[in-house]
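WP5 quarterly update. Target: Tyrosine--tRNA ligase. Source organism: Advenella mimigardefordensis. Length: 409 aa.
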Amino acid sequence: MSTPETPISPEVENDLQTVLRGCDELLVQSEFAVKLQNSRNTGTPLRIKLGLDPTAPDIHLGHTVVLNKMRQLQDMGHNVIFLIGDFTSMIGDPSGRNATRPPLTREQIEVNAKTYYEQASKVLDPARTEVRYNSEWCDPLGARGMIQLASRYTVARMMERDDFTKRFKGGIPISVHEFLYPLMQGYDSVALKSDLELGGTDQKFNLLVGRELQKEYGQAAQCILTMPLLEGLDGVEKMSKSKNNYIGITETPDSMFGKLMSISDTLMWRYYELLSFKSLQDIATLAQQVKEGRNPRDVKVELAQEIITRFHSAADADGALANFEARFRDGAIPEDMPEINLGPGPLGILKILKEAGLASSGTEAGRNVQQGGVRVDSQRVEDKNLQLEAGTYVVQVGKRKFARVTVSA
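C-alpha cells (predicted):
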C-alpha cells in the first residue's frame, strides 16, 4: 500500500477505506493512496472529476450512487469538479449499446443541462463544487486539434472495448464518430488535470482512456473509481429514464415513497448498500432482524423515509408514510403480487388492466379509471388514454387488486 518514499499514515488509510466503501473498483489503489498522502502532506486538495452527459433533464437515484461518493471526497476537503458533457452529448456515448446512439441536438442539451446542476446540488455542496462544461476546451480544438488528438490513440486499443468488439463481430455498424466519444471524455481529464475520475462500471473503458491520454500529454495519470450500477424498480435493468424503471430525485415525496415500497424485498438490500448513509454495521443489523422475523416492509419504510428526508425533508417523509398508510389502511401492498409481462410498449392503460386480469373488459377498465380507482406506482390515473412506455409498474385497481406489470420495449 505504501512506498518507501511516501509512507501512508493511519488517517489516510481511514480515508481510503471510506472511499472504497461500496465501490466496484479503484485503479490503481496503491497510487491513489500515495495521492491522498501527498495531498495531506502538502495541504493541496486533489482534483476529483465526474462527468455526466445531460441526455435527459432529470437526475435519478441511480446517478446519486456516484454523486454520494463525490460528496464523501468533498467532505474530505478535496476539489470536486461536476462536468456537464454538453459537447460529448452531441456525439452520443456508445457505452453498453448494441447500436449507434443518436446524438442530441444543441437545443436538447441546453434544455437538459439547465436542471442538472440544480439537482446535483441536492447531493453535492454547491459552495464547494466547480462546475464546468466540456465545450470550453472541445469546441476550440477544431478539425486540426481533433486530428492531432486522434493520433494519440490507436484503433486496436479502441477495439478492445467490449461493445465495439461485439458489434464488429456481429456485423453491426460502428460509426467513426463513436470512436471520438471515449477520446473526448479522456481529453476532459487532460484539460482538467484530474487526479481521480469517477463513473459507473460501464464507463471503465472511457476512464482508462483519460488515464492514458494524460500520460501522452506528460501529466500524472489519474486514478479511476468505478461505482456499481443501480438496478431499477424491475430489479433487472439498470435504472434509466428510457426504461421507465427510475425514481427521480425531484419526484414528489408520495411518488418516491410508492416506488420505493414497490421494489422487491431482495432488491431492497441492494438499495440499502448503494443509497443509504447508514453504516454497514447498521445495515447488517437490519438484515439480521429480518432474518429473525421482522417484517421486511418495515425496513423498506425506513429506507424510503431516509431517502425522502434527504431530497425533501423529514416532515415530507412522515407525510408520505401517513399518506401511504391511509391509502392502504384496509389492505397493505401485498409482498407477492402477480407478475405480468406485456408488450411491446407503449400500451394503453385500459388494455393493460384487461390483459393483467385487473378488469374483465375494456369497459370496466374505463369505468375504474373514471371512478378514480386505478393507480400506477401509487399515482392515481385520471386519463383513460394514458400510454405506458417500456418499464415495470405496480398497477392497482381499488384497494385489493395489484399486479406488477412489465411492458417490453
